[in-house]
Amino acid sequence: MFEQFFTPSPEVNQDSTTIRRPRKGVIIGAGQVGMACAYSMLIQNTLDEMVIVDVNREKLEGEVMDLVHGLPFVQPSIVRSGTLADGHDADIVIITAGAKQRPGETRLDLVQRNVELFKNLISEVVKCCANAILLIVTNPVDIMTYVSWRLSGLPSSSVIGSGTVLDTARFRYLLAEKFQIDPRSLHAYIIGEHGDSEVPVWSKVNVSGMPLFDGDLDNASDDNQQLEEVFAQVKNAAYEIIQRKGATSYAIGLGVTQIVQAILRNQNRVLTVSSLINGLHGIEDVCLSLPAVVNRQGVTRLLNMSLTTKEEQQLLHSSQVLRETIGKLNL
Ligand SMILES: NC(=O)C1=CN([C@@H]2O[C@H](COP(=O)(O)OP(=O)(O)OC[C@H]3O[C@@H](n4cnc5c(N)ncnc54)[C@H](O)[C@@H]3O)[C@@H](O)[C@H]2O)C=CC1
Ligand SMILES: CC(=O)C(=O)O
C-alpha cells in the first residue's frame, strides 16, 4: 500500500541476528493496577510490545484505546489488547488479575478468591507463554507467588512477586521526608510479607553508606517513637489509601516497571521482590521478600543480610504467618 511514497533502500540488512529481539510483555488484568503498570511502562520505554488481557473485553478495549492514543507522545512501541495466545513469544507476564481489598479487608482475606482464580489461570499462562518469567502482583502477593510457582512447574527463579518493593519505596519516601534527603540516597528495606507482618530493617537504614541507627529502636525516646510512627504509616498505607480512593495503583505501577526493567535489561539490581526461600534465616518453603539480585534469569541470588535478633524473630514470625496460610490451601 502507498508504494508511491517509498523507495526501498538498496542494501537493507536482512540478517535478523543483528537486530535486537523486541522485548515483549503481557499484562493480565486491565484494572487499576494493570493499567497503572501499562502506563508507567509505556512512558518509561520498558517494552517494545505490550499485550493487555482481561476477561472484561469491553473495559479492556476502552483502556487500550485510551492508552494507544498517547503513543505519538512516547518512544515507539506496540500496545494492544489480546488473549494469552498472543503471549507465545512473551519475555514476561505480569499478573494483576483478581479480587482486591475492600475497605478494612486484609490482603490475606483475598486468598481463597484469588487462589481459585489462579488454579485455572496459571496453567493457561504456562501453556501459552512458555518462555516467560512470571511477575505476580495480585494479592496476597507472597501466597500468590508461591501458588504460581507450585502450579506452573517453573523454576522458582522465574516466578517472582512484587513483594515489598512497594513497602520499601514507601519506607524510603517517608524516612527521606523526615531526614530531608533525596529518597534515592537513603537505603532502607522492608522484608517479609507484603502485609501486616512485614518487617522494617532498622539496623540497615543508611544514607549513602552511613548507618542511621546502632540496631533496633529499643528505647522509647521521642525520636524512636517518631520512627515507629513512620513504619506504622508504611504498614497501613494501603488501608489508608483504599479507605479514601478504593485502590492503590500509581506507586505499584512504578515499582513493577523497575522490576520489569531489572529483568529485561539484565540489570542485576537488588530489589525486595518476593521469591521462594528455602533455608535462609531458618525459613523453609515460603515465598517472601528479602533483598534479591534480579536479572534476565529472574531472581538469581539472595543477599545474606545480617539482622539483629529482634529482626530475625520478626522475619521468622512473618514467614510463619505465610506458611500457615499456605498450609490451609488445597493445591
Ligand atoms: N502487590 C502489590 O503491591 C499490590 C497488589 N494489588 C493487587 O492487585 C490486584 C488487582 O487490583 P486492581 O487492579 O485494583 O483491581 P481491579 O478490580 O481494578 O482489576 C482487576 C482486573 O482483573 C480482571 N480479571 C479478573 N479475572 C481475570 C482473568 N481470569 N483473566 C484476566 N483478567 C481478569 C478483572 O476483569 C479486572 O479488570 C488485587 O489483588 C490487589 O490487591 C494492588 C496494589 C498493590
Ligand atoms: C494494595 C496493596 O497491596 C498496597 O497498596 O500495598
Automatic annotation (TrEMBL):
It comes from the Bacteria. The keyword Phosphoprotein applies. One of its GO terms (biological process) is lactate metabolic process. It comes from Aerosakkonema funiforme FACHB-1375. Its EC number is 1.1.1.27. SUPFAM superfamilies: LDH C-terminal domain-like, NAD(P)-binding Rossmann-fold domains. Beta-D-fructose 1,6-bisphosphate binds at residues 172, 187. It is found in: Cytoplasm. This is L-lactate dehydrogenase. Catalyzes the conversion of lactate to pyruvate. Homotetramer. HAMAP family: Lactate_dehydrog (MF_00488). The active site is at 194 (proton acceptor). The gene is ldh. It catalyses: (S)-lactate + NAD(+) = pyruvate + NADH + H(+). It is an enzyme of class 1 (oxidoreductase). GO terms for molecular function: L-lactate dehydrogenase (NAD+) activity.
